[in-house]
Write a structure and sequence with these properties.
Distance between the termini: 41 Å
Strand content: 25-35%
Oligomer: single chain
Radius of gyration: 18 Å
Number of helices: 4
CATH class: Alpha Beta
CATH topology: Thiol Ester Dehydrase, Chain A
Largest sheet: 10 strands, antiparallel
Number of domains: 1
CATH superfamily: Hotdog Thioesterase
Number of strands: 10
Strand order of the largest sheet: 1-3-4-5-2-7-10-9-8-6
Structural class: alpha+beta
Helix content: 10-25%
Order of helices and strands: EHEEEEEHHHEEEE
CATH architecture: Roll
Amino acid sequence: MSNSPFDAWVGREETTAARLAAEPVRALAAALDLERAPQAGEPLPPGWQWLFFNPVVRRSGLGADGHPARGGFLPPVDLPRRMWAGSRVRYLADLAVDAEATRRSLIQRVELKTGKRGSLCFVTVGHVTVSAGRDCIVEEQDIVYREPPPPGPAATPVPHDGVAQWSEPVLPDTTLLFRYSALTFNGHRIHYDQAYARGEEGYSDVVVHGPLTATLLQQFALKHGGGRALGAFEFRGVAPLFVGRTFTLEGRTADDGSLDLWARGPDGELAMSARATLR
């Protein structure tokens, strides 16, 4: 039997409703520099569901990091750095732009661990997005809380020596990060406040959003998927990417027909690994 102080949070549920409005979809298309935005009634691209169902909290209800203060739906984990570490997503049916939808969320697991660089807490949240009476997207999100980095040199990056069939550079500038933060109502200061990112959370610069990189990888998968739709996608963040430093989307076809994908940082390090299944 678990003795975690957060056992009471496991099994908590909440349901959020949203209209998948065309205007933020059009704005994200502009932020990503796409020639055309999906129109009302057309399928919402994979990853773009993260525009919606985000918590809207008054400014007085935010923590020092710009996230909603701890202890609401998510457990009050007392570790200062928190990030979206990865997800496993299944796309069962299209979500239509401008449609009404609901998302049912359930806290599935809370796990306390000790790593090489201190204490960690992993919170896994399951989401089911429903529209027109159908389950359209089923997702598990892993949120990790951790201690600030210890003094001394940063952890050694993990190199990635995979041979890519396709490669595409991305230069994340401050405008892209600002627009993505605004569109997802993400107040986390590591994405726009350089002094905070460096002084409080120990990063070398402003950090690129993990779900933004994951969205770009899903777009990259569709580009090289032979016209097929995305049936499933999973990703895991490995190392942060920073503003003003070009990273590379890369991928290849796996033996089973799925796509192995990754984001390679500017020094050759693995920043995010992913896999896409096409249908």
